[in-house]
UniProtKB/TrEMBL annotation:
Keyword entries, A-Z: Magnesium, Metal-binding
Binding positions for Mg(2+) per the UniProt entry: 118
Any Pfam family hit: RraA-like
Protein name: Putative 4-hydroxy-4-methyl-2-oxoglutarate aldolase
Keyword match Signal: no
NCBIfam families linked: PRK06201.1 (NF004850)
UniProt xrefs under CDD domains: RraA_family (cd16841)
InterPro entries hit by this protein: RraA/RraA-like, RraA/RraA-like_sf
Amino acid sequence: MPTTLVHPCPPLADPAVIDALRGAATAIISDNLHRLPGAGGLLPQHKGGAMIGTALTIKTRPGDNLAIHKALDLVQPGHVLVVDGGGDLSRALIGEIICAIAQSRGAAGVVIDGAVRDIATIRAGDFPCFARGVNHLGPYKDGPGAINVPVSIGGMVVEPGDIVVGDDDGVVAFPPASAADLLVAVKAQERREAEILTSIREGRYVGAYAK
C-alpha cells in the first residue's frame, strides 16, 4: 500500500537572516547566485506581497495531495511548503482550505509545482501562494509521497531547510549557509542599482558599458 515517507524537519533559518533578506528582490538574489537557481513558470496566485521562509519540502504523486495533508502537521511558523507535483496540471493539489490551514499554523507561504484551485479566494488574499497553474478538478488522496526530501520545482532543486524567496518575478531558493555572503552581495547590488536610477533621473547616466 502506498505510504508517505516522513523525515524530520531541519532547523528553521535564523530569524535575523530572514529579516535581513526580507524585501530583497528575487531578481537581485538570482543575479548574485550566478543566475543559476530559480523556478521557471511558478508565479504568484495571491493578491500580492513577497514571501520568505524555510523550505518544508514535499514530493507527491501528480494529482495526489496525501503527503501535503501529512506535512501540515509538521508546519512551524516560518515554513514555506514547497511541493514537487511534477508540474502536472491535471488536478489541483491545494485550494482555499489547505492555504487556510497553512496560514493558521504560521506558514510563510506555499509553492506548488502543479495546479491550485479556489483561485478567486486565493487571489483576494495576501497569503503567499505560488503555482504553475489552476484547475478546478480536485486531487486524489492515495499517496505515495515523501516529506523533507530534495525536490525539484520548475527545474530548481530545493533541499529541506533551504531559504525560499518569492515575489512577482517568481521563486528562488538557496542554502542557509550561503545567506551571509549573499546578503552582502545583494545589498551592494541594491545600492548600485539605486545609484543608476538616480543618475537616470538626473540626466547623467552614460550607459552600462561607458568608459
